[in-house]
Design a protein that fits this description.
2% of the residues lie in helices and 34% in strands. It has one helix at 44-47; strands at 4-7, 26-29, 36-38, 56-57, 71-76, 99-105, 109-111, 114-116, 125-128, 134-138, 141-147, 151-154, 164-165, 169-174, 197-203, 224-227, 233-236, 242-247, 251-255.
Length: 256
């Protein structure tokens, strides 16, 4: 298997105090994040500030992954490589998937004296938080291992308005942005301010309290609400509307 080789002369030590005193030597990084070999001249103390970050690869000798506790293993949905019109997208333009299929689940967690099961089952199609979990490659496919609480909802169709939120999540249809200023000037797309108001479409069953019971959310479908500006996951529905899925704690007020 290939081994990447870096030399100290190719590394800029400016703004890296942990590399002071580094002399030309070889740093070899293996194909997985399991080990590295450091040549003469690089002390263990000066190496402590260096973090080598790469995708985790599960070697072929492992044939299964069993999540523990309240963790879930999801096979990530492949990114769209073409637009609806058939135009091939470059890698940089492909949106990072936020969904996939559950392929393994943990045994659940204990809250107080109660056992709380995982809220999804194997084979369920789910949407998860944008920055959740640890990505890994297994059996030639990309997977994500994450906590049950990081799953936003269940989506068995390809239309986000059919999302069934889980736990304390809420699905909101975002109000349309103002097309004109108060003076009647037509706004460009870039100048339109992202609204923080919308209509609740669906709500989850609520969070689990210390006794293991579900606590209903304070908002219901049909409510017009104001929510935190930078919260949640944004989606574009097939109907052309924008949707956002967020935690109920990010809903600031009910409007009437």
């Amino acid at each position: 298997m290939a081994t990447a080789q870096l030399t100290a002369s190719s590394i800029s030590t400016r703004n890296l105090p942990s590399f002071q005193g580094l002399r030309p030597s070889a740093l070899k990084v293996g194909p997985s994040v399991g080990y590295c070999r450091v040549g003469n001249g690089l002390s263990q103390r000066s190496f402590q500030g260096l973090v080598v970050k790469a995708a985790t690869v599960v070697t072929p000798k492992y044939t299964s992954i069993k999540p523990l506790g309240d963790r879930v293993l999801v096979k990530i949905k492949t990114a769209e490589e073409k637009t609806d019109g058939g135009i091939l997208l470059p890698t940089t333009a492909q949106s990072k998937p936020q969904g996939g299929e559950v392929v393994a689940i943990g045994e659940g967690k204990t809250v107080g004296k109660s056992k709380v099961d995982i809220s999804v089952k194997n084979g369920t199609q789910v949407v998860y938080s944008k920055y959740a979990g640890t990505e890994l490659e297994f059996n030639g496919s990309k997977h994500l291992i994450l906590k049950d609480d990081d799953i936003v909802g269940i989506l068995e169709t390809d239309d986000v308005k059919d999302l069934k939120p889980l736990n304390d999540r809420v699905l909101i249809q975002v109000a349309e942005a103002e097309q004109k200023t108060a003076g009647g000037l037509l706004l460009t797309e870039a100048a339109k301010e992202k609204p923080s108001i919308g209509t609740v479409i669906a709500v989850g069953p609520g969070p689990v309290d210390e006794e293991g019971n579900r606590k209903p959310l304070s908002v219901t479908p049909g409510n017009t609400v104001m929510y935190s500006k930078y919260a949640g996951n944004d989606f574009k529905g097939k109907d052309g509307y924008d949707y956002i899925a967020l935690r109920a704690s990010d809903v600031m007020a009910v409007l009437s």
